[in-house]
Design brief:
3 helices, NADH-quinone oxidoreductase subunit C, NADH_DH_suC, Beta Polymerase, domain 2, alpha/beta, single chain, EC 7.1.1.-, two-stranded parallel sheet, five-stranded mixed sheet
């Protein structure tokens, strides 16, 4: 099974308006889609008689503060075990409305992965059965992996800059 075959099937099923940003990295097909298309696309790939992307390897949140209207995103890493083919699907949403539909009905493993993306990035997965923090304290009122926070605590004076190459 070739990446072009998957790309052609996705374009035929969803059209160029919903399948864009097509690329390849180290032999892995990468596709970008819309938030509205992500669940139908994943269901299509899961149920396709040839592709059978029935394993969710990973789901990760991302933050690009300079991409206006597309600051928060989710990357879905799918794997067809039968064909030994991997695929990355990306979708983006504005930081003011970081809503993505859940895929926990298709992949049970998405439950914890979506909770992690919510915990660290503030991405809301509509329809998730238990969208609560998973690693951070419930009392936190921010999402620490967003790039709006400094990497270091500027108030600390116990670091020797020479040891950190500064």
């Amino acid at each position: 099974m070739e990446n072009q075959q998957i790309t052609d099937a996705l374009l035929a099923q969803f059209g160029a308006d919903a399948v864009f940003g097509i690329g390849e990295s180290h032999g892995i097909l990468q596709v970008t889609t819309t938030v509205e298309t992500i669940v139908p696309m994943i269901h299509f790939l899961y149920a396709h008689p040839t592709f059978k992307f029935q394993f969710l390897t990973d789901l990760a949140g991302i933050h690009f503060p300079d991409a206006k209207g597309q600051e928060l995103g989710v990357i879905y890493h799918l794997h067809s075990l039968e064909n030994n083919v991997r695929l990355w699907i990306k979708a983006y949403a504005p930081i003011e409305a970081p809503h993505f539909p859940t895929i926990t009905d298709l992949y049970a493993a998405a439950n914890w992965m979506e909770r992690e993306a919510f915990d660290f990035y503030g991405i809301i997965f509509d329809g998730h059965p238990n969208l609560t923090r998973i690693l951070n304290m419930d009392e936190m009122d921010y999402h620490p992996m967003r790039k709006e926070y400094p990497l270091e605590d500027a108030t600390r004076h116990d670091k020797i800059d020479e040891l950190f190459g500064r």
